[in-house]
Design brief:
With 275 residues, this protein is an alpha+beta fold. It is 28% helix and 22% strand. Helix 2 packs antiparallel against helix 3.
């Protein structure tokens, strides 16, 4: 504390220790590395260069909320934290939480989430008039599923329209330089283990004027995720259906990996070709 002039303690420290032999020995062999992360950049530099001014430290600390930055991040299992808790009741439940976690991991269930992918590329005539100004890419759009534990399967009640290219990770409507400008709504499903999903939406044009053409995805009837610009937008950790599907594998009460559960479920519903 004395070597930093009481920074972190309101500038208060026992200065008398600095005259003691032990402190002088400590000072001779001490190696000090100062790293200041986040906060106002100018105050950050001043504090890094000379970390012995409590007034600068206080001013810098007050700026962290406006210029925050993560310095380190670590994750510890909940049951480990519970084992180290001061409350005996919490410590006693650590094993129960651990067993519950293992059960969920060893008995995954499939969740099927409906997706509505709406593509608007606007009027053909008006768009062609503006084509040289705004069009560099193709009309149409695509949905790309980025989560490795999830797959796309079709909605049998709503077949894909013509000019759709689909796989278990990607759905695309439209063809590059085709000059077909229409509105299409594609419906399909995402199957995964219930975790939030990551995906991207790509769109090739702006329609008759900037911002008119668009592509949007509606997941589980929540507000549309809109993309009305060129190229690609990414969406992360979006929630899926909260209702698990029932499978024959679930009834066996035995342990299964997610890969086996997914394969078994797709076989049951006749969608194994999409794996």
């Amino acid at each position: 504390m004395a070597s930093f002039n009481g920074i972190g303690a309101g500038g208060q420290f026992d200065a008398s220790v600095m005259t003691e032999t032990q402190y002088k020995t400590f000072s001779e062999f001490m190696q000090r590395t100062v790293s200041v992360v986040g906060g106002n950049p100018e105050l950050n530099k001043r504090l890094t260069a000379d970390p012995g001014h409590n007034d600068v430290f206080v001013e810098w600390a007050g700026s962290v909320a406006q210029d925050s930055s993560i310095s380190t991040l670590s994750v510890v299992e909940l049951w480990i934290l519970m084992k180290e808790a001061g409350s005996r009741e919490i410590r006693d439940f650590a094993a129960t939480v651990f067993d519950a976690y293992n059960y969920i991991v060893q008995h995954p269930r499939p969740y099927k989430t409906p997706i509505i992918f709406d593509i608007q590329s606007d009027c053909k005539l008006d768009y062609r008039l503006q084509q040289l100004i705004y069009l560099r890419d193709a009309p149409g759009a695509e949905f790309n599923l980025l989560s490795p534990d999830a797959v796309i399967i079709p909605d049998d009640s709503n077949p894909f329209p013509p000019k759709t290219v689909a796989s278990n990770t990607r759905v695309q409507w439209g063809r590059e330089y085709s000059h077909d400008y229409e509105r299409k709504t594609l419906r399909f499903n995402v199957v995964n283990d219930g975790s939030p999903v990551n995906f991207s939406i790509s769109k090739g044009s702006n329609g008759p004027s900037v911002g008119k053409g668009r592509a949007e995805a509606i997941i589980e009837q929540v507000s549309p995720l809109l993309h009305n610009k060129w190229n690609t937008m990414w969406f992360f950790q979006k929630p899926v259906s909260s209702v698990a599907m029932t499978t024959k594998m679930e009834l066996t009460r035995t342990r299964h990996s997610w890969d086996n559960v997914l394969k078994g479920y797709l076989e049951e519903i006749g969608a194994i070709d999409w794996l």
